[in-house]
Amino acid sequence: MQAPDHLRLGVNIDHVATVRNARGGAYPDPLRAARLAEEAGADGITAHLREDRRHISDTDIEALMASLSVPLNFEMAATEEMQAIALRHRPHAVCIVPEKREERTTEGGLEVAREENRLAHFIAPLREAGCRVSIFIAADPAQIEAAHRIGAEVIELHTGAYCDAHAEGRIEDRDAELVRLREMSAYAHSLGLEVHAGHGLTYDTVGPIAAFPELRELNIGHFLIGEAIFRGLDPAIREMRRLMDEARA
Ligand code: PXP
Question: Which residue ranges form the domains of the chain, and what is each CATH number?
Fold first, then answer.
């Protein structure tokens, strides 16, 4: 049994597919990585099916849905195509993210406040199908309030600005981002939302975020897949788990 304040680790396997797709063919296999991640203690697997299928493919999603024993968190843009795929598979969780074809990665959070009506209608059938709907947003009260109003159960706070500031040595910016994230995590929780976080997290940046008491889940991918080149996927994940537990203790 997990403790009620257990901080779940969702391992994002998108970039196993990135390496596979660099050559085409079948390896490295994201499903194999997902199984290994489960054995290493991942509480869930996260995969982002992009419109351009640059990493995870439709077949990967089918294989993950058929074989995983931990929940799949299906990241997707708020498009009709993705909604139909999610309704067909009914994954445990759906995370709605903004998506731009020209970006290298998900650059910012979703502008929920600007599209409240459309998003409310968009997520309703996903919730009715039993998917736990999460909205990936910046640590901004207006976005949190809008996510709450449209009926999302979960928000995922974008940690990219905090991680970028750390990587670039902008210490004041990093600390300001951390304060913002901490305050917004508490605010979202006070509204009754479940709070997750992710994007850009590494061994160096995970601790202060994992320490937020309201946080229930972190989703981490790119760094772990990169680190796996040097130490293997299993030890890379176990070390992240250890650092999360240490920060929580
Ligand atoms: N959470 C969300 C919503 C994301 O879109 C991503 C990146 O796909 C992540 C977490 C994981 O980010 P990273 O791969 O930088 O760890």
Answer: 8-248 (3.20.20.70)
